[in-house]
Write a structure and sequence with these properties.
By secondary structure, the chain is mostly helical. The longest helix has 17 residues. Helix 6 runs parallel beside helix 8 and helix 28 packs parallel to helix 30.
Length: 641
């Protein structure tokens, strides 16, 4: 389309032709089309408006900017909005016109110009915006100039923004936000100086800004303000100091400043603002002391564990960082179970042993729920010298949670062989989870004597005893217990045979000796045993299992065949393709879908042709699966002609 044709169509009445011409004008960056595109922006047809909008953005340049600028004076708000959006993108192409607009008699035009300059991403916008900020008589122009300087975020703007801190409150709001974004060191003094004459709201914003800017230069200036500031502002100042220094660095303050700040942080814990409270907690966690513990606990006990979970976790972490002190000791020995449970979690994270020793000392005096929480923490934190306490727990306690914690400690952490008989006794516990914990603890001892006890237990007429014994012997030493495990593969109870399979076939690649032991289970009368063997063979994924997976394709149970098919798909051995294709003749729906998936994974010409055939299936699901699998082969592997 020629330039003349574009201009003619833009002046016509055919909507589609106008849109086509606008599209062409944009692609050609046709400046001569600008007046006509500007006219079409004012069209009542949204499609035409959008096409003209896009074209003007593409054309850009001085001509486009000057063409759109008059639309800012339109009485039609949507037209003004479109013009603003276009100029925010292309306005930087004509700084001179925008700077002239900053001196327009209409304050709205000056506001628009300030806004557009703020999106220019150019440092050239800083001087005219600074002039508008400091000299424009209209407060809303000055406000917008500060907003735009913050959007640009060039450090060069800091000087004029600092001066504007003496402006009226409405402008100060935007100036503070702008300085926060720029983070210039020179602004710290200006912000602090402005505190003297600032309203309560502005003072609060200044302090928040100093905290967010994170400049350490603000700390001594803020510390000086603490004593002479009103309560709410003082709390904000304390928060800002913590935010600047971070909790850990508060310890670097001099003792006098640290203790003074501690008092203000304690007071800030009563502030209604959660952000102030959270900052105070972080500060107190670093400074420490019994009073800090009391203040954090006062907040923690009021929190709902579900609704206020994150804040409660923050309280626990703060208490842990504060550490053990007289307050912790008193509350742990006290009668308030809710407070105790919070402190138990905190003691888990305390580096010293003091809290652990106190928990152990008061354990038997506390109610069941508290003992459960305490036993978990004690099992994690106690060292091997505490084994007598946990052996006593096994003798005296009957709660499953507490017993499991004790078993975990004695078996895994303390390796307390002397508790072996007590652990074995708990294999008779009525709860399965306690039995499992006791069995794991016995195994964790890694004691030859315990292995011998399980060999004896394997001769028990009780199937559960035999199953636990087989599991334990498999974990202790398969080779040393191979005779018993081989015998277990023929046990009358399927669950015992399954556990024996898992014990014998626990290594990859399978040795020929191990394979000879387990492959007879391919014909086990119990489906679950056969499934267990197929999953073990498939998980091993080594070539020597291939013949047995092929055998499993003839299993009478669909699920066994499915697992064998999945394993063959994982092996990606093309030798499996003929057998898999043969299955498609009489396979059920589930098996057929799995065959399709496996053929897609294995790939190759034969698999691809089989999938093409299956794409003609009467079953829509099979059709779709075959299409997906064939596409996978074509994309990943390619197919020879």
């Amino acid at each position: 389309m020629s330039e003349q044709q574009i201009i003619e169509q833009l002046q016509g009445d055919d909507v589609e032709a106008i849109r086509e011409a606008a599209y062409a004008a944009g692609n050609l960056r046709l400046e001569s089309a600008v007046p006509h595109l500007v006219a079409q922006i004012q069209s009542h047809n949204i499609g035409v408006q959008e096409a003209a909008d896009r074209a003007l953005r593409k054309v850009g340049g001085v001509t486009a900017v000057r063409g759109v600028l008059p639309l800012l004076r339109s009485d039609d708000a949507p037209i003004r909005n479109i013009a603003m959006d276009v100029l925010r993108e292309i306005g930087a192409d004509d700084f001179d016109s925008l700077k002239q607009l900053l001196h327009d008699d209409d304050p709205d035009m000056r506001i628009f110009a300030s806004d557009i300059l703020g999106t220019s991403e150019s440092i050239l916008a800083v001087p005219p915006l600074c002039e508008a900020l400091l000299r424009d008589p209209e407060v809303n122009v000055r406000y917008q100039a500060a907003v735009s300087l913050g959007t640009l975020a060039f450090p060069d703007a800091a000087e004029c923004l600092n001066k504007a801190m003496m402006d009226e409150e409405w402008v100060q709001f935007s100036v503070i936000e702008a300085l926060t974004k720029i983070r210039a060191e020179s602004s710290v003094n200006a912000l602090v100086k402005a505190l003297d004459a600032a309203s309560d709201l502005v003072a609060s914003m200044i302090v928040d800004a100093l905290g967010e800017m994170g400049n350490i230069k603000a700390v001594p200036l803020l510390l000086k303000r603490l004593d002479k500031s009103p309560g709410p502002l003082r709390n904000k100042i304390a928060k800002a100091i913590v935010n600047v220094l971070g909790g850990k660095s508060l310890s670097l303050l001099g003792e006098k400043d640290r203790l003074r700040l501690r008092d203000y942080l304690l007071a800030a814990m009563d502030d209604e603002d959660e952000d102030v409270q959270n900052a105070a907690m972080r500060g107190l966690a670093s400074i420490g002391g019994a009073e800090a513990t009391e203040a954090v606990l006062k907040v923690a006990v009021t929190l709902d564990p579900d609704r206020d979970h994150e804040r409660l976790v923050a309280c626990v972490h703060s208490l842990a960082d504060i550490g053990f002190n007289a307050s912790v000791d008193r509350h742990v020995r006290g009668d308030d179970e809710h407070t105790l449970l919070i402190l138990v979690e905190a003691i888990r994270g305390m580096p010293s042993r003091h809290g652990i020793d106190v928990l152990r000392g008061v354990f038997w005096d506390k109610p069941r729920d508290a003992q459960r929480a305490m036993s978990t923490v004690l099992a994690e934190r106690c060292d091997p010298s505490d084994r007598d306490f946990f052996i006593d727990v096994l003798d005296r306690h009957n709660d499953a949670h507490v017993l499991k914690a004790a078993l975990h400690y004695l078996g895994r952490r303390a390796k307390a062989v002397e508790a072996g008989e007590r652990m074995l006794a708990l294999l008779e516990h009525p709860y399965d989870d306690v039995k499992e914990a006791a069995l794991d603890a016995c195994i964790a001892l890694n004691d030859p004597g315990m292995n011998a006890r399980f060999r004896e237990s394997f001769r028990s007429p009780d199937p559960l005893h035999r199953m636990m014994a087989v599991y334990a012997m498999g974990r202790f030493d398969v080779d040393a217990n191979l005779a018993e495990l081989t015998e277990a593969l023929e046990d009358e109870i399927p669950d015992v045979r399954k556990v024996a399979l898992e014990a014998v076939a626990n290594v990859c690649p399978f040795t020929s000796e191990r394979l000879e032991l387990v492959v007879p289970r391919l014909h086990d009368e119990n489906r679950e045993v056969r499934l267990a063997l197929i999953e073990l063979l498939g998980n091993c994924g080594e070539g020597n299992v291939f013949p047995y997976l092929i055998q499993a394709l003839d299993d009478p149970d669909d699920w066994v065949r499915v697992r064998a098919i999945e394993a063959l798909g994982s092996l990606k051995d093309s030798d499996a393709v003929p057998q898999l294709v043969a299955l498609t003749e009489n396979a059920g729906h589930l098996v057929l879908l799995k065959v399709v998936e496996a053929l897609g994974a294995i790939g190759g010409n034969v698999a691809f042709r089989a999938l093409l055939h299956l794409m003609e299936s009467e079953d829509p699901e099979v059709q779709q699966a075959a299409e997906t699998a064939a596409a996978r082969i074509h994309e990943e592997q390619g197919v020879d002609d």
